[in-house]
Fold:
Amino acid sequence: MISTIDLRGEQLSARALQEKLPRAQVDVSAAVEMVQPLVSDVRDRGGAALRDQAEKFDGVRPENLRVPAAELTRALQELDPQVRAALERATANLRLVHDAQVPQDFVTEVGPGAQVRQRWIPMRRVGLYVPGGLAVYPSSVLMNVIAAQSAGVESLAVTSPAQAEFNGLPHPTILAACELLGVTEVYAVGGAGAVAMFAYGASAVEATNPAAACEPVDVITGPGNVWVTAAKRIVMGTVGIDAEAGPTEIAILADEQANPAFVAADLISQAEHDPLAGSVLVTDSTKLADAVRNEIAKQAGEAKHAERIATSLGGEQSAIVLVSDLDQGMEVIDAYAAEHLEIHTVDAAERAQAVRNAGAIFVGNHSPVSLGDYAAGSNHVLPTGGSARFSSGLGVHSFLRAVQVIEFDETALKEISEAVIALAEAEDLPAHGAAVKARFS
Structure:
């Protein structure tokens, strides 16, 4: 079911390792060509285009794209009490962690009468996308909304695809999560059209009220499929985006002492997401590799989504990678730069501290990725496809801008004026120096 890549004894650069390691191949550029007309149509025709797209792709034509407040209230009232309690527990942990992430403004005294201040300013308005494909993701509502709320965003909107099963509304658990967090602006819009709606705004989002509109946002966040990713690429620059998300992935670094049942269960849990999901085990133990392979065969066959899991684990994006020792294993996982990295070794905490590239790191036998997906308090919107080498997961910082404020008095400017003038002349920009000289002429 799952292939093996043997790197034992090989001395490879990080780039060479990246080429050897398994990863799903997703052509976003090709998707951009297909998605561009959808994005342009929403920019030009607003709500009418969005209803046409919902009818075509979701099998339902919502009369009103904005979800009525009464539907949000009803969804929370009818929510399974056990699910509500779980969402409330997850919310408490997420708020605790994200409130602690908020950076503080600071002032640096460069000299007498000279200071540079740094302010952190929240985005005014953000659009948060919640997928609605193979699974239902109320957890994504929590991850996006709470990070934005902790940052101090004053206006936020959530969108999730219309569901024919629910009369053109998003899944009721999504609506319940929005109501639980106090989100009042929710849209039944999915795919590339949702991204376009947030980027350009959309008039007449309610067929019964021609004045109703979704205002453009400053940044769009939230995971989605390749069509959502392609639309984000198109609108990037008009608005900010969190990342170009690809298929989800897990890497596990494990030694001989690791529990093969735990390792197999975690590989399977990620494969459950999507046929393109990547599950990679890196180990120096052939004994563990064989035991994990046996556990996968046993556990995956009993899983609800066995066919999806088999496709994922059998795909080019999944493998068991054999290494000579754990030091080589560390080189492999840093080259792979997994969205989710688990470490199951005797020195897991020390290994975790030494990792350079990962979206999130889960340490030891009792910190599975599913914990972070839901209730640990960490954010599960993470960089994929190796982009953890240069980007971070979603957090409070995703909704903040750092602005520097420079304030010098006359004495402080005069004291540094010779340096400014000398550098201006060295760059052949004499008017820059003249702007300083003018203050003392």
Q: What stands out?
A: The longest strand covers residues 114-122. The chain has a mean pLDDT of 95.
